[in-house]
Design goal:
The chain has 17 helices and eight strands. The protein is of the alpha/beta class and 317 residues long. Strands 1-2-3-4-5-6-7-8 form an eight-stranded parallel β-sheet. Helix 1 runs antiparallel to helix 5, helix 9 runs parallel beside helix 11 (168-177) and helix 12 packs parallel to helix 13. The longest helix has 15 residues, at 299-313. The radius of gyration is 18 Å and the shape is globular. The protein starts with a strand and ends with a helix. The mean pLDDT is 96.
C-alpha cells in the first residue's frame, strides 16, 4: 500500500496554478525543476530548450500550461492510482496572494474533488498569514465544514520565517482543531530571498510553542537532515516526509541522507512518510515508491514509510 502525502492533481486548474507559482519564484522553473515539469506537460527536451529562450519566465510558464492543456481526467488518474497500489493521495491548497499576487484555488474546488473521490483523495488547506483573522476563519471552515485534513504553508512564499508571530493564530487553530500542519522545510530555490525561511530549528521552536500540534516537515528539511532527525526524535508530534527528492539517491555518499537512513530505520521509523511531488519529479508515484522499497530498510520500516505512518497521523481509514 502507498499513501502519497505530497501529491498533485493532473487537472488544468492545478497545473496552471502551480506553474504560475513557480513563475513567481522563477528559479524553480528556470534552474531546478523546469525540465522535469516540462516532461510532465508533454514537452520534448528540444522544445524545452526553445521555450527557455522566451522573454521571461511567466511566458515560459504559460507556454507549458498551454502544452499541458486540460491535463487528463481525474477518473483516469484515480484508475492509475489504483493500478499503482496507491490507497490515498493528499493534495494541498495554497494561498500566497499577498506576497506572490496569485489568486488561490478556492477551498470549495478541493472540497468538490474530495466529495467526488471519497476514500482516495484528501486535501490540506492553504492559508495566507498576512490575511489575519479572515485566513484563520477560512481555515476553520475548510476543516469543520469541508472536510480538509490539515494546513499547508510555505514560509518562503509568504516571505516570513516559520516561527514568525503572524503564523501564530493559524498554528494555534490547527492545534485546536487537532489536525496536522504540513510545512515546507529545508532549502528553497528562490534566490531572491534567503534559503532558510524554515529549517528544522524553526520547527523545534514551534514544537515547544505548540506542544500538541502535529508538525510534518515537507521535503524532509534537506540539507539539514541530521537536525531534522534530531527534532523528530526530540518531539513526539514532529514528523517528516520525503517528497521532491529521488529516494534512489539517498544512498549516494555525500548526498546528506545518511542520518535519515540510519535513524529512520530505527529510532524515528514511526516519524517518516512518503510523498512523491510527481509533478516536479517527472516520475510516477509508483516509481518513486519503488525507490523507497529498494533502500536498505527493514521490510516493516518500508511499510511504515510508504503508508503506515501517514495512515495513522492523518487518520485515514
Amino acid at each position: 500500500m502507498i499513501i502519497d502525502v505530497f501529491s498533485y492533481l493532473p487537472t488544468a486548474v492545478h497545473m496552471r496554478y502551480m506553474l504560475n507559482t513557480f513563475a513567481a519564484t522563477p528559479d524553480y522553473l528556470s534552474n531546478v525543476f523546469g525540465k522535469t515539469i516540462a516532461q510532465v506537460c508533454g514537452v520534448s527536451p528540444e522544445e524545452f530548450q526553445r521555450l527557455k529562450q522566451l522573454p521571461d519566465v511567466h511566458a515560459f510558464a504559460e507556454a507549458l500550461a498551454a502544452r499541458a492543456g486540460e491535463g487528463y481526467p481525474l477518473e483516469k488518474f484515480v484508475q492509475d492510482l489504483e493500478r499503482m497500489g496507491v490507497a490515498w493521495i493528499i493534495v494541498h491548497g495554497e494561498d500566497n496572494e499577498t506576497t506572490l499576487g496569485l489568486t488561490p484555488i478556492p477551498n470549495d474546488y478541493w472540497a468538490e474533488v474530495m466529495r467526488k473521490f471519497p476514500g482516495k483523495i484528501v486535501a490540506l488547506a492553504g492559508a495566507d498569514p498576512h490575511k489575519g483573522a479572515w485566513a484563520v476563519a477560512e481555515f476553520e471552515r475548510a476543516v469543520r465544514e469541508l472536510g480538509f485534513k490539515g494546513l499547508w504553508v510555505v514560509p518562503f512564499q509568504h516571505r516570513i520565517y516559520a516561527d514568525d508571530p503572524r503564523y501564530g493564530a493559524l498554528f494555534g487553530k490547527c492545534q485546536e482543531l487537532g489536525v496536522p500542519l504540513l510545512i515546507h522545510t529545508g532549502v528553497n530555490w528562490d534566490s531572491a530571498g534567503p534559503m532558510d525561511y524554515c529549517t528544522p530549528r524553526h520547527l523545534d521552536r514551534l514544537a515547544v510553542e505548540f506542544p500538541e500540534l502535529t508538525i510534518i516537515a515537507s521535503h524532509a528539511g534537506w540539507p539539514w537532515i541530521l537536525d531534522m532527525v534530531t527534532v523528530a526524535w526530540r518531539h513526539r508530534h514532529v514528523y517528516l516526509e520525503i517528497s521532491a527528492h529521488n529516494p534512489r539517491y539517498f544512498t549516494r555518499p555525500g548526498a546528506g541522507w545518511e542520518p535519515l537512513l540510519h535513524f529512520g530505520n530505527s529510532t524515528i521509523q514511526e516519524k517518516v512518510m512518503f510523498g512523491s511531488a510527481w509533478f516536479l519529479m517527472g516520475r510516477s508515484i509508483e516509481e518513486l515508491a519503488q525507490d523507497v522499497r529498494d533502500l536498505p530498510l527493514k521490510p516493516e520500516v518500508v511499510e511504515k514509510w510508504l503508508s503506515g505512518n501517514a495512515k495513522r497521523v492523518f487518520q485515514l481509514a
